[in-house]
Amino acid sequence: MATAAQDVLAQYTVLDSTREFVAARHRLVIGGKRLDAASGETLDVFDPATAAVIAQVPAGDKADVDKAVAAARHALEAGEWSRLKPVHRERLLLKLADLLEANAEELAQIDSLDNGKSAMIAQMVDLGMAIDYTRYMAGWATKIEGATINVSMPGFPDAEWFAYTRKEPVGVVGAIVPWNFPLLMAIWKVVPALAAGCTVVLKPAEETPLSALRLAQLLEEAGFPPGVLNVVTGFGHTAGAALSGHPGINKIAFTGSTEVGKLIGKAAVDNMTRMSLELGGKSPVIVLQDADIDRAVQGAVMGIFFNQGEVCTAGSRLYAHKSVYDRVVAGVAAAAEGMKLGPGLDPSSQMGPLVSRVQQERVRGYIASGIADGAEVVAGGAAYAGSGYFVKPTVLSNVRLDMKCVQEEIFGPVLAAAQFDSIDEVVELANSTPYGLAASIWSNDLSAVQRLIPRIKAGTVWVNSHNVLDPALPFGGFKQSGLGREMGKDQIEMYLETKSVLMAV
């Protein structure tokens, strides 16, 4: 396998450390030890740009999850981690942020090989966000507070009481992360859990397991005790299912599709496990008649084609006022037709491949469905020739609400566009799917924007921007886009339990 990986990597310009890590023997991380799967089974890791196997990782299952949960429990209740003060957790997380920064280029290259995304953009965006987020969350470790409360007891008129609340770690966290932002999504789950004093069992997507294993190495280098982070690679239907339904897990944190999120939620409920679910989206991009058209076009292009459209908040539905519709669609289509497709490790590539053959065929199926239902293809649409899991950036115009390509999350570079005549009409269009993760409004009319924002059923509304996140701003969805929030103080609260204390004095 090492030789095969070297052959694939030989065609790319990457760091020596990247080559060494990808070609190394990969094992589970449980209680600070490196282990093969109990079954001895492995799964292949593919380079999406060439469809070649570049690595193998253990195919962990229930037996391995059991070991990982036990290790996390021991670290939480009996190990060094249980005795660390908040300031020490903060310092460890700040050290981790420094290591992420020092190894940013290598980590971006690993994600590019795993996922297909641009390594250059991954270093700038994914790693940039991961570093800032880790430093932001590190600060919360020393700012977790309870409260004192003045109580009145009708049955004890002369008694004196002292009452207060404590915030305590929720316990062992099972984190299941997707393949579109492999390292960043792992950071989004692991770091706030550690800031709160929890321990973690991390299950990365089977398509993109490598950066999670590298993250475990960096935590060790930062000085985190054994068992604080455990990584079990494997399939969703085995390792993921075992983790989501495990009675030893106190909280499940999941990012992925709504369909899988519902299954995880059902499994968690059986054990009354706390959960946060960041799920699918079908985000509208709304262009009002007064908008700066060039700016709106640029925003729509980035909104749908960034990261190959493999983004839960991708601006996959474009609604432009009838007076500017043709100009906006033509602008987005021109940008799509001019994009250069190629490997994420090629700096000249403007769009990389999708993550897998399965995802490629899925996206192509949605394009075919839209065409069959009467959508007009104004860019892309045709199959991409050559190896790798590429799909041409596609713009479908004059779509209808009843089309699958409008109602369902595609998770690829496919934009469905339609025009509107009035604010009431675009509100109905924007809210017409089961999702409510995000939306963007493009306009210079502040009054119109402020009236529109409350009517859009989405957890995030951007104005004259799209796909812009900050660690301090809570992120999550309405409707079937999820439960709970990522980022900000709201996320820290998801990893804490509140204990009330009442003392007779």
Tags for this model:
six-stranded mixed sheet, Aldehyde Dehydrogenase, Chain A, domain 1, 2 domains, alpha/beta, Aldehyde Dehydrogenase, Chain A, domain 2, 22 strands, globular, seven-stranded mixed sheet
Mind explaining what this structure looks like?
The chain is an alpha/beta fold and 505 residues long. The chain contains 17 helices and 22 strands. It has helices spanning 2-9, 16-23, 62-77, 86-102, 104-115, 119-140, 182-195, 210-222, 236-244, 258-270, 293-305, 325-337, 357-372, 404-407, 423-430, 446-452, 488-494, and strands spanning 28-30, 33-35, 42-47, 52-58, 148-149, 161-169, 172-176, 199-203, 229-231, 251-255, 274-278, 284-287, 317-321, 376-379, 394-397, 414-420, 435-436, 438-442, 460-463, 478-479, 482-483, 496-504. The strands form six sheets. Strands 14-15-16-13-12-18-19 form a seven-stranded mixed beta sheet, sandwiched between helices. It has a six-stranded mixed beta sheet with strand order 9-8-7-10-11-21, with helices on both faces. The mean pLDDT is 96.
Give the low-pLDDT segments: none
Number of helices: 17
Q: So, the CATH homologous superfamily of the largest domain?
A: Aldehyde Dehydrogenase, Chain A, domain 1
Strand percentage: 15-25%
* Average pLDDT over all residues: 96
Distance between the termini: 69 Å
Overall spatial form: globular
